Amino acid sequence: MSTDDAHPHYHGHRDRLRARFEEAGGDALPDYELLELLLFRSIPRRDVKPLAKDLIARFGSFAEVLAASPTRLRQVSGLGESVITDLKIAEAAARRLARGAVARRPVLSSWSAVLEYCRTTMAFAETEQFRLLFLDRRNLLIADELQQTGTVDHTPVYPREVVKRALELSATAVILVHNHPSGDPTPSSADIRMTKEIVEIAKPLGISVHDHIIVAREGHASLKGLRLI
Fold this sequence. Notes:
Radius of gyration: 21 Å
CATH class of the largest domain: Alpha Beta
Shape: elongated
Number of helices: 10
Strand order of the largest sheet: 2-1-3-4-5
Oligomer: single chain
Largest sheet: 5 strands, mixed
């Protein structure tokens, strides 16, 4: 008896889930069902509902499953290398889509898209990362660079290197972005001190620091919004 004949029940489930997605869209589905839809193509001859639920329980959400490192994903029974590759392709597609929403648009008038891009790119990373968004005189994004990657709770940031890179790109403004793997986006005293140092070095050179955004699983914090810069 073939695998298909032995487990005919999941074919009907797949058809019903696809129909719900086509009718109502992804927002109408819980995380585990959206993940099921993704796994259908990677694992065509197995009931993937238990695996999808296990992944969500282990990592926390659909976004966190996609953002999980290949090393951590390999620890999950039932995930082969081809499935892990498909998950990472989906993550890369999500990042590209989010970045497209801020490319060639005035950043300050597309702030919600900027926040969404920052969260998509960094909020669920397992180590601290420090990213720089460089803007021109019209506040258009001219470069997006990951400057540093650190440990689970520290990233070395060199203020003079930040300003030097802005000058090299002829940027007139920068947005600083980093993540807190702990899940809490509250800025630390070191975050505030480092930001103020960059502002002090950049200002005499005609470079503005529009904001320092901290992203995490539990949300985001804006140092400008908190009136810390």
